[in-house]
User: Fold these one by one.
Assistant:
Number 1:
Amino acid sequence: MFEKLRNAFSVAAKSFGEKELKEKDIEEVLFELEVALLESDVATEVIDSLKDDLKKQLIGSTVNKDKIAEVVKQELRKSISSMFDGAGAVDILSNIQKKKETGDPYIISFMGINGTGKTTTIAKVANFLRENKYSVVIAAADTYRAGAIEQISEHGKRLNVKVIAQNYGSDPAAVARDAVLYAKSHKIDCILIDTAGRMQTSKNLMDQISKINKVVNPDLKLFVGDSLAGNDTVSQAREFHNYTKFDGAILTKSDADARGGAAISIVKVTSSPILYLGVGQEYKDLKSFDKDVFLETLFGPEQVAEEIRKKSEPKVELKPEIKPEIKPEIKPEIKPEIKPEIKPEIKPEISEEDPFAGISTKDIEKYSDIFDAPPPENDNQARKLASDIRKWISEGRPKTKDDSKPEPKVELKTEEVEEVQDGKPIKKRSLFGWMKK
């Protein structure tokens, strides 16, 4: 139900979340929202109201950008909720009980054009009242449409409900009056009046509905509209309300309504509440309209959404905490594999009581002489000296610190020298010397 309208609100919220809170960008998103809502059968009055509310909340707002989408969704939810609250509510069962205590029947008049499911809806309401232990009589005041009297009479037989009817062409107001007299004489709790499916553009037929209401003075006037008719249903509701000021509406075929705009629009245009939704063909397929359920269908459960957001925050914080726990588990496994021989050799030597174990006395004395190493005064110094000696041994026991550096390469050079005796050369010989490059 209401899938298209739900998607329109969701896309609008996400679009705001991707833009800065500048008036130009807000206008662009509001235009996209307006188009989406029009396609979802939302009346222009509703769209203008939603746009104005969003502008007031968003322009110049200091809300964090990451939370803009959530703020937009909540503002839309709040605006629509206030529309339903402003329309009020009607508790039919409570009102019937109060009227019953006075000894008079409670009268409900139904209006709407042909094809909306009005007659079937009346039968569903009759079944609902009987299930709640109230007696019912139906007035077949639709004396114009062929088959209308037979249709409502068949429903009466199935439900075991009395139907008051006259011939076709009879005065609808007279049929309604007969039903009231029958109810009073038989102590019937509630009267349901089925009026003709008059087109809202016909003034004469609309005047006849007004006449019925004046003659019997119903306690509750209900408009029955087809959810699938969209904006046409809103237009019908507006016209009927101008003539009769009905007290509430019932939307049929809501189970097949993917748009959902009619409910919001009728409430805004007529300031009258939606009382019931028809959700099937069976008599039991009549559900009381619940504002909270409707809003949850469009926006999701408000409290649950906040809980999910709160729960997602610690999840993000847990990730860096899990990673360091995994790393130390991997390191001990890798280290022994990469350097399995180094650790066991070094650690035991350092942890033993004699840190010089394995080092000859000759190497200790030679190292001390070359590097003027003083005798260690404590265990830490002894371990340090032993480590330095081992390093010195591994480097080939250099005689000085500078000797630890790589020795320079040398080359052999031959020089020719003449030997002189008594001032005369007697022979030549070769001398070998080391020359640094």
Number 2:
Amino acid sequence: MTYVTNPLRLSGLPPAFVAISEFDPLHDDGDRYATALQDAGVEVELQRYAGQIHGIFWLSGACSQAFDPLVSDLAAALKKALA
């Protein structure tokens, strides 16, 4: 399925942090969203988490190997955005 995104709706948005898990059913959508944001001129930080499933942020006990890097990456992106 091809998604068409109106760049006028995306342009002017603040910087974005997009996290994608390798085994997430929404993996391809995350890639397309990050690309659409970049194409609209939005600053995007895209992080991929190998070997992980959808919901790693909410499953910290089961996915601790990815949770800690994800939280660190999120904190760094937030710190950068607020600087």
Number 3:
Amino acid sequence: MEQLTGIFDSHAHYDDARFDADRAQVIGGLRAAGVQRVMNAASDLASSRAALELTRQYDFFWCAVGVHPEEALEAPPDYLQQLRELAAQPRVRAIGEIGLDYHWQTVPREVQKRLFEEQLALAAELDLPVIVHDREAHGDTLELLHRYRPRGVVHCFSGSAEMAREVTALGMYVGFTGAVTFKNARKPLEAAAAVPPDRLLLETDCPYMAPEPLRGRRCDSGMIPYTAAALAAALGTAPQQLVDRAARNACALFGIE
């Protein structure tokens, strides 16, 4: 695999328990793998605090704070105030990941929608972008994005090319993971082709979504070259050019020099 530099992994979860045994070793090796910046996204209040702690340990990490739809039932009554206080820290650059997930059907949709709306409103109040999770909830996700019109990204994009055009028409970014390398990747590659170059982000969603030929392994940011190569081939550009453009896009979205 071609060595790439200046990689910005715009969506990672290094606070995940799967990194507990060797987190420092993995993160310590990222720079040598060409990774220059990482945005660590949270899933609940505990992981929001853990993500913030990682930014104190590693100067190339930034983070988002928020409550994921699958964790919505566990959010305490004062969760918005807790997020507000966490978001006051300078390394917090987004509210996320937030959104809707209708795959597992374990959290009532109305509860998910309520927390999504409350956190969209919080992001607007704090003038922060959002990191949106959308799994099998495209219609409701789009409706709320049209209503609130946040700055932000729909991460790990799984929608159609038409939806990608609708998301970018709202001024939002679209994030792509190792899923673009999978054998059945026609749909995400078609969606990527519909995204303007200045609205495309690269991400891992690690420890999930390891690309081919590493699928099934724990993912980390050093695997982004596989994703970049697959996207670059589909879009008719060079992998390093794609990485450079995506890094500039992520810096613009998250307000990073």
